[in-house]
Amino acid sequence: MPDLPQSLSEALDAMEGSELVRETLGDHIFEWFLRNKRAEWSDYKAQVTPFELARYLPTW
Question: Model's pTM, two decimal places?
Fold first, then answer.
């Protein structure tokens, strides 16, 4: 049994390969959803989190 996706990006890759999801949603919604969720992932990855700031930019 394959592992569950560990990120939105991995989940979208899996979804993109699913004929069932494409047929269920229809081509237009399927492509729209993938495009918008990939943009959402890109925006998320561009953020610097408080954890990253505390870990990698310590204040002396």
Answer: 0.78
